[in-house]
Specification:
This protein is of the alpha+beta class. The protein has a 5-stranded antiparallel beta sheet with strand order 1-2-3-4-5, covered by helices on one side. Helix 1 packs parallel to helix 2. The radius of gyration is 12 Å and the shape is globular.
Length: 90
């Protein structure tokens, strides 16, 4: 299981009311995509071994843009995503 799959499992366990969709890359070296929808919160997470985690709050204003924040390891990404899902932060 890779880090983004572990992140998906963590989100599903900690926030069972969230809708979580994990999409693998088309090519082995591509980026995985993890979409999280929890009430008014919508997050898009990208992950690849090469770049780590990219985290974005999703809105009509930022569709198609690069990630808002980047994290190299799972622990930092998980901590920030938890903050985003449980506070008013964007």
């Amino acid at each position: 299981m890779n880090p983004v799959e572990r992140l998906r499992d963590y989100i599903q366990q900690e926030h069972p009311q969230a809708t979580v969709e994990l999409t693998p890359p088309l090519h082995e070296s591509g980026a995985w995509s993890l979409d999280i929808d929890l009430a008014e919160k919508k997050l898009a997470i990208e992950w690849s071994e090469k770049t780590g985690f990219g985290v974005s709050s999703v809105s009509a204003d930022n569709f198609g843009e690069r990630p808002n924040e980047a994290f190299k390891n799972l622990a930092d990404a998980r901590r920030r995503i938890t903050d985003l899902l449980t506070t008013l932060q964007r």
